[in-house]
Every structure is written in C-alpha cells, then in structure tokens.
Amino acid sequence: MPKHSEHIKYSILELASMGVGSTPADTFSKSLDLAQKAEEMGYTRFWLAEHHNMVSIASSATSVLIGHIAGGTKTLRVGSGGIMLPNHSPLIVAEQFGTLGSLYPGRIDLGLGRAPGTDQATAHAIRSDRARSVVAFPDEVAQIQKYFSRENKTAQVRASVAEGVEVPIYILGSSTDSAHLAAKMGLPYAFASHFAPAQLFEAFHIYHNNFQPSAFLKEPYTIACINVIAANTDHEAERLSTSLIKMMYGVLTNNIDYMQPPEEMNAELKALSGYEAFQRMLKYAFVGSKATVQQKTNDFIEATGIDEVMVASHIFHHEDRIKSYQIFSEIMKDRK
User: Fold this and answer.
1) Whole-model pTM above 0.85?
2) CA within 20 to 30 Å of 278's CA: 46, 148, 215, 216, which one?
3) Where does the Luciferase-like domain lie (predicted)?
4) What domains, with CATH codes, occur in the chain?
C-alpha cells in the first residue's frame, strides 16, 4: 500500500436519513444545514447516496438533492455517492450532471456505482432491462465520458449541456470488480467499507497494482467510507449508536423502518451488535469519545493508505449529528 500524506481530506456521505416523526422536507432542511456547517468545518465534499423504496432514506432523487445542497453552499464539493448507473440512461445522467456542473462550476462530482440501491422488485420497476445494464456498466461509464467530451459535438446523439463541462467521475464499489474497472479507466476509486468491508484491502491492492494513468488522473486516488458516532464520552456515543443498531437490524431482517430515537444500551441491543452479521457489516463503525474515535480513525488511515476518508453518521437528533461531525473535523485537523 502506498504511503499517504498526513493531510488526508475528509468528507461526508449523506443518506438523508428519515427519523420517526419527520418529513422529507424536515430531512432536506437538516441535510442543507449539515452541509453548510460541514463547509465551515473544513470537509472537502458532501456526497448523497441513491436509494429507493426505503422509508428511512430520502435521497432517492439524488441529482435534485445535489442541486439543493450545492445551491445553499459556496465552496463545498457536492456529488453522488453514488448514482447507481444501471438505474439510469447514461444520456440523462450526462444531461443532469452537465447542468449541475454549469450551475455550480468546479464543485460537482459524479460517483457511479452498479448496485441497485434497493430490492429487486423496485429495481425492475426503475428499469426493466437493468440486468443487461449491469453487465454494460463499463461501457456506460465510457459513454458518459463521451457525452462530456467536446469531441462529441459532431455525434448524432449529444448531451450538449455536458460538453466540455468539468465534472470528475469516481468509480464506487464494494467488491473487487469495481477495483479492476477504476484501475483500467484511470479513475479515482471510492470503496463502501462503511457497510461492505470484506474486500476493502484486496480491492485497493488490485486498484493500485493495475492502475493505468489517464487524462483524468495521473496517480491512484482512493476514498474509503466509515461510520462515525462521536460524542463527549464513550457512554454517550454508545447510547447514540442504538439508533444505528436498530436501523441495521431492520436492514438485515428486511424490515426497514424509520430511524428510531436512541436509548440506553441494554442487553438485547448489546447482543444484536455482537452478532456476526453486524460485526461483518459494521467492522468500520467507530463509536466513542474524541480520543476513542481518533485512535480508530488513525489506525484505519494507516492500514489503508487512503487519500481521503468519507464519513456516514446515522444519528437520530440533528444536534447530536452536527456535534459528531464537529468532533471528527477536529480529529482530522489534529492530524495536520
């Protein structure tokens, strides 16, 4: 693994989580407030994830929400973590992000993944030929690049609002397949280690060893995502983490519900968090005080050699979530 700089960038992955009793409007308002505060805290980018048919996540119309966040901030990079490309036409993606790139020059990122971001029935409702599109993912990424190129102005099919607009493309992944693609195309690579950590190191090894420099990127660039719940004390962070435990239990049992308020850790929740499936999914969930999260984060950065760390924080109360991101920003600033 290559040596990394001490000046690691730090960013946010936002799922616009819906707490019980909240509305989408409430959630979008809080997402914008978080983005504005993140800008002040020194976060580099604010990415929104695409999920569908999940009452607990409101970021389904991802490109629309990106425009909302970018319009309410000044310097923060805003993008997709990611757009699940098999759900969409490459032409429409190019038109949407070309438009965003013109509205907010130099601030829009396009992260592309191939997972459905939902269940199979919903995936079919989104795009009935999705299975073919999954196989065609590399070609569709290349097609989007073509739509963004100035050379495409002579083509029969154009995304004229995208031509010549600078919107960097990132390959997202949770397996080694994506690592091979990102390396071959010479694109930056973001790994979903916040929920699928099993192949993290193997994927990064493949990416670094097979990376081919491109017009977009001369050297490999890696981002890894972690879960962070930081508070003033380990006990308080553990209490806040009960919302995440209950949410993940709903995911694992296919009984997805609104995020629930935190409660004191009890024997039942402790037992749940100890199950192998939980441990496997949440290997990189750093819960605790500033000192605790700092140690875990530093160990993670040293082990992975990443260029950038991206943080997801599933915390019920908005004020507690802001506090957690504030603590994490202090941790990252202390590294410099």
Assistant:
1) yes
2) 46
3) 22-307
4) 1-167 (3.20.20.30), 226-336 (no CATH)
